[in-house]
Amino acid sequence: MVSGRDRNAPVSTAVLYERTGAGWRAGASRPAHNALNGWTDHHREGDLRSPIGVYTLTDAGGRLPDPGTRLPYDRSAGFTAGGAGFEGEPLSGSFDYVVAIDYNRRPGTSPLDRTRPLGPDRGGGIWLHIDHGGPTRGCVSLGRGPMKELLRALDPAREPVVVMGDAASLER
């Protein structure tokens, strides 16, 4: 689960929950970033907000070799980010590891696939990726270590999802 501090904040907390025979077990709470302008119920291309909702996690990839995920993994030089973020932080390395969030994308394809079933105006390319120290354009970012841990923990047989949004929206 990724929970933002408020609707317009780019700072969140991420917690991996695992279903066990005894119920749900929460992992460690990790700092995360989301989009510069916070969260939205109706994401649009370029709004600089992360979409609120529950989304499947079916595909992964990155510039670096597979760290041991069970998800299909696409290693490609296409996972390259350059330039600087909104706060001047370097973006290089942000896409060393990614997990595609199945928002306006075709599950079962590389995270680099640009197919947008809801249309291009609804945005896409929403990923979990390595944190670069500042807000994102719409993705959720985690530290390098937690991102590798997440990749190793996700099992497609368990149908993983991400629940994400600002805390007030998630309480509804």
Condensed summary:
By secondary structure, this protein is mainly beta.
Structure report:
It comes from Streptomyces antimycoticus. This is L,D-TPase catalytic domain-containing protein. By secondary structure, this protein is mostly beta strands. The chain has one domain (2-171). 9% of the residues lie in helices and 34% in strands. The protein is built from 2 helices and 11 strands. It has helices at 144-153, 167-171; strands spanning 2-4, 11-20, 23-33, 39-40, 50-51, 53-62, 73-75, 98-101, 127-130, 140-142, 161-166. It has an 8-stranded mixed beta barrel with strand order 1-2-3-10-9-8-6-11. The protein is globular, with a radius of gyration of 15 Å. 37% of the residues are buried.
Based on helices, strands and strand pairing, what is the structural class?
Answer: mainly beta
The total count of helices amounts to 2
Shape: globular
Alpha carbon gap, first and last residue: 15 Å
Uncertain segments of ≥5 residues (pLDDT<50)? Answer: none
| Average pLDDT reading | 95
Count of individual domains: 1
**Count of DSSP E strands?**
11
SSE string, helices as H and strands as E: EEEEEEEEEEHEH
Q: Strand count, sense and closure of the main sheet?
A: 8 strands, mixed, barrel
- Rg calculated over all Cα atoms: 15 Å
Share of helical residues? under 10%
Q: Beta-strand level of the residues, as a percent range?
A: 25-35%
Strand order of the largest sheet: 1-2-3-10-9-8-6-11
